[in-house]
Amino acid sequence: GLVSNSRESVTVVACISAAGIAMPPMNVVKGKTEKSLNGFNKSEGHENAVWAFQKNAWIDDAGCLKWFREVFLQNCGPTRPQLLIVDQHRSHEALDLLEEGMRENIRILALPPHTTHFLCPLDRTVFGPFKKHYNSACDDFTMQSPSNLVMKWNWPKLSNDAFKLAFSHRNIVSGFRACGIFPFNPSAIPLEAYMPAEPTNIEYPEPEITR
User: How far is CA 144 from the centre of its chain?
Assistant: First the structure.
């Protein structure tokens, strides 16, 4: 398929609930000032998306706190306490975020390292379909005309089209069920998930010592 002549990363921060609801995404683009957002047609993206910028388009401590305040707290409802399950990215363990969570009576639980393929509902049943639908949206768009290239301006719409399809109630609920989080079911995790990783069973030869 056709591709643009340059590539640039965008981090999409997503959050879902066991009730089958997806919160609006936060899109982190590459840039050092607010002007870096001007190249994106935000009106064609998710109507409630929050936009942020970072020099590498990564989620950092400040970005995670921004997401917590402007996305999570604005969409999680008034019930307290609540449990927020995150992976072990360092931004999720920033002191400012943990203190803010304590003030808001939000319990933050970080999953053990290298376990999200079993324990994270997004990894289990949402991100895969999201990637599939996004690729399909890009393919359909580029096939419509030789002049159609995936760029900053049209990325919000393509991403939002895929978001609507992948972040469905069915996919979200299936993810929490597959991880055994809700309904709570420890046996949902297969026994082989508790076994040592395969590389730990490899015997490496003794290194040769050259004198």
Answer: 29
